[in-house]
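Long-time lurker. I teach an intro course on protein structure, and each term I like to show students one example going from raw sequence to a predicted 3D structure in token notation. This year I'd like something fresh instead of my usual example. Would anyone be willing to generate the tokens for the chain below so I can use it in lecture? Attribution to the forum is fine with me.
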Amino acid sequence: MRAAVKILYEDEDFLAVDKPAGRLVIPGGAPGEVALVDELSAERGQKLWVVHRLDRDASGIVLFAKNAAAHRAACLEFERRRAQKRYWAAVLGRLAEDEGEIRQPLREYGSGRAGVDPRGKPAQTRYRVVERLDSATLLEVEPLTGRRHQVRAHLYWLGHPVLGDRLYGQERPVGKAPRLMLHACGLVIKPEGRRTVAVSSELPEDFREVLEELRREKGRS
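-- Reply from a regular --
Happy to contribute to a lecture. Here you go:
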């Protein structure tokens, strides 16, 4: 039986949950696979609207709206780039610089991948180094736009793909990590006429286990 999804925040308009890696947010997976939005709607006996998506293999914060008006207000914050999003990402290799910003347009392809392309849409991602390990770097990442696979595609372009990525990287999964090392850890939005929604999520156990193994490798080197 699937474990219950942890609720991180709830008010009269919004519900934020802690999505485990491997869960699909919206319908479109394998036959019979229940998307998170449908599961939660059924459990609560009310329709929920998806405010933003999170990749299946990533973990962390997903925000739902409880009514159409709240959904419109929240989506407007994302469209106007006023939503503040933060991720933890463990990437392959050691970054030399302590922080940086990637401004490269992204284009979606029929394969489901996205890539840097001058014909793509503007995309902007900030990052800063949290910890340097022997063969990897832990980053705090802030996507300032909301393109599909933005963080993964930008970090791959930078030459430091996310560990565990099965779409972006020369070796797949990158670094042979058992999961995608990308976690949505923070979200703040201020929908017009509604209270501020501020949500945080701690690193899940499977993410921490991979980090600890990387730290042990650094200690042995």
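Some talking points for your students: The two ends are 41 Å apart (CA to CA). The chain has a mean pLDDT of 94.
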